[in-house]
């Protein structure tokens, strides 16, 4: 089933769900979400959120039926600023978490043995922008500049050397921790997912982090299968 999200709020809420999500660092839009004010995990009062449909129709807190994970500290934001909840008898699947506005990408099998949609620079749409000289420049949507820029920085940090045949190869200096956070952000392009959920579902092993990061830099090709 789909996860639930709880944001502790002591007083009367004044922010819209969209604004509240941005403030606490939930990395996806709150469009179309349902919410109630209730007591939640750790005895706190706040707002409980979920996307409901006929198969996911319960918006309530239950310490006995649900498993809750507090937000980790990240980017200067404190731990516990939100909580992610799952029904104990029905953990979320790839399909439960996929956003309706997901982008094109490659299907990659991750640690829970499901295939997940990974957006790459090659699968991003390019848009035509006329230049002063009459030519067209094809640019990525500005909201994905971070993806292209981060991968360029990772390539620039590599070391070019020659192999035994004299061909130039790029040696990557791995940074599994930073790459984990980068891949969590990338996964949120297509899923309503947080780093806490990524960890709970055991999606990224250290070898998977390196393989996917290398593939995104063009060092190894991902499957060409598209959703």
Secondary-structure blueprint of this entry?
Elements lengths: L3 E5 L8 H8 L9 E6 L5 E6 L15 E5 L12 E5 L6 H4 L8 E4 L5 E4 L7 E5 L5 E5 L4 H12 L2 E4 L5 E4 L4 H12 L7 H6 L5 H11 L11
Antiparallel strand pairs: 1-3, 1-5, 2-3, 4-5, 6-7, 8-9, 10-11
Characterize the structure shown.
By secondary structure, the chain is α+β, with helices and mostly antiparallel strands. It has 2 domains: 4-91, no CATH class; 106-216, no CATH class. 23% of the residues lie in helices and 23% in strands. The protein contains 6 helices and 11 strands. It has helices spanning 17-24, 94-97, 145-156, 176-187, 195-200, 206-216; strands spanning 4-8, 34-39, 45-50, 66-70, 83-87, 106-109, 115-118, 126-130, 136-140, 159-162, 168-171. A 5-stranded antiparallel β-sheet has the order 2-3-1-5-4, with helices on one face. It has a two-stranded antiparallel sheet with strand order 6-7. Strands 8-9 form a two-stranded antiparallel sheet. A hairpin with a 5-residue loop joins strand 2 (34-39) and strand 3. Mean pLDDT is 88; it is low at 221-227.
């Amino acid at each position: 089933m789909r996860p639930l999200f709880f944001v502790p709020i002591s007083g009367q809420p004044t922010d819209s769900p969209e604004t509240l999500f941005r403030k606490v660092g939930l990395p996806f839009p709150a469009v179309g979400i349902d919410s109630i004010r209730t007591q939640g995990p750790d005895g706190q009062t706040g707002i409980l959120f979920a996307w409901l449909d006929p198969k996911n129709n319960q918006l309530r807190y239950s310490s006995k039926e649900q498993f809750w994970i507090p937000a980790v500290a990240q980017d200067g934001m404190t731990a516990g600023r939100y909580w992610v909840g799952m029904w104990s008898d029905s953990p979320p699947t790839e399909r439960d978490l996929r956003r309706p506005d997901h982008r094109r990408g490659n299907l990659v099998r991750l640690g829970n043995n499901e295939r997940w949609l990974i957006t790459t620079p090659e699968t991003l749409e390019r848009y035509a922008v006329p230049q002063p000289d009459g030519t067209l420049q094809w640019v990525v949507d500005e909201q994905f500049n971070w993806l292209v820029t981060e991968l360029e920085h990772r390539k620039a940090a590599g070391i070019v050397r020659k192999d035994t045949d004299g061909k130039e190869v790029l040696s990557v200096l791995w940074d599994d921790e930073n790459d984990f956070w980068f891949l969590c952000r990338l996964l949120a392009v297509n899923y309503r997912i947080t780093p806490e959920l990524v960890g709970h579902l055991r999606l990224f092993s250290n070898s998977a982090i390196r393989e996917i990061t290398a593939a995104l830099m063009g060092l190894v090709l991902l499957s060409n299968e598209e959703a």
